[in-house]
């Protein structure tokens, strides 16, 4: 038997970097994945192409 507990979670990270994302009308899991990959691409060396 496997039990799963879902609890509200609100992580906070203190940083000197300001991030603002305006996705307009684009929402949903696939949009979140696209945004995440774009951010990782900008923050890491090299190119995310494969």
Q: Keyphrases for this structure?
A:
30% helix; mainly alpha; 50 residues; 0% strand
Question: Could you characterize the architecture of this molecule?
Answer:
The protein is an all-alpha fold. 30% of the residues lie in helices and 0% in strands. The protein has one helix and no strands. The protein has one helix at 29-43. The radius of gyration is 15 Å and the shape is extended.
Structural class based on helices, strands and sheet pairing: mainly alpha
- Oligomer classification: single chain
How much helix, percentage-wise, in residues? 25-40%
Biggest sheet layout: none
Quantity of strands, as a count: 0
What percentage of amino acids are in beta strands?
under 5%
Compute the separation of the termini in Å: 38 Å
**Topology order in helix (H) and strand (E) letters:** H
| Rg, nearest Å | 15 Å
**Sequence stretches where pLDDT stays below 50 over 5 or more residues:** none
């Amino acid at each position: 038997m496997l039990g799963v507990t879902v609890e509200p979670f609100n992580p906070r990270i203190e940083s000197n970097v300001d991030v603002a994302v305006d996705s307009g009308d684009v929402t949903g899991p696939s949009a979140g994945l696209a945004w995440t990959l774009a951010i990782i691409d900008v923050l890491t060396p090299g190119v995310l192409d494969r």
